[in-house]
Amino acid sequence: MQRIPIALAKPGMKLAKEVFRPENPSGPAMCGKGMELTESLLDRLRNMGIRSITVQGHPVWMEGDRTLEEMLEDLDKRFSQVAEDPLTGKLKNIYREYLLRSMGE
């Protein structure tokens, strides 16, 4: 999943998280998780003052973003000192699965 400015959102993208009104973030959701964006929905969200949304996958590449391969290499490096520990290995695998899911793989 990726949090992007509403200006970069395109029809066909799907929401990874619910969207709430800026003036009432603890109130009921305006749009549900999994909803596909349309041009009219994007216009309504912009008019309501929504500045950013969280979408499925990683559809927009912005400056400073790292590729999935780079993140997985970094994960391997971070866990290299404790590679033999089974509990830490499970933690690494959980994070690896999260990266794969969040990047849309």
Question: Could you characterize the architecture of this molecule?
Answer:
Helices cover 36% and strands 12% of the residues. The chain has 105 residues and is α+β, with helices and mostly antiparallel strands. The protein has two domains: 2-55, Molybdopterin biosynthesis moea protein, domain 2 (Alpha-Beta Complex); 68-102. The strands form two sheets. A two-stranded antiparallel sheet has the order 1-4. Strands 2-3 form a two-stranded antiparallel ribbon. The longest helix is centred in the last third of the chain and has 17 residues, at 86-102.
State the main characteristics.
105 residues, 2 domains, two-stranded antiparallel ribbon, Molybdopterin biosynthesis moea protein, domain 2, alpha+beta
Enumerate how many helices there are, as a single number. 3
Low-confidence stretches: none
The largest pleated sheet is described as: 2 strands, antiparallel
Mean model confidence by pLDDT: 91
Query: Structural class per helix/strand content?
Result: alpha+beta
**Estimated share of beta-strand residues:** 5-15%
Sequence of strands across the biggest β-sheet: 1-4
The H/E string reads EEEHEHH
Second-tier CATH architecture of the largest domain: Alpha-Beta Complex
Structural domain tally: 2
Characterize the overall form: elongated
CATH superfamily of the largest domain: Molybdopterin biosynthesis moea protein, domain 2
CATH class of the largest domain: Alpha Beta
Return Rg in Å. 17 Å
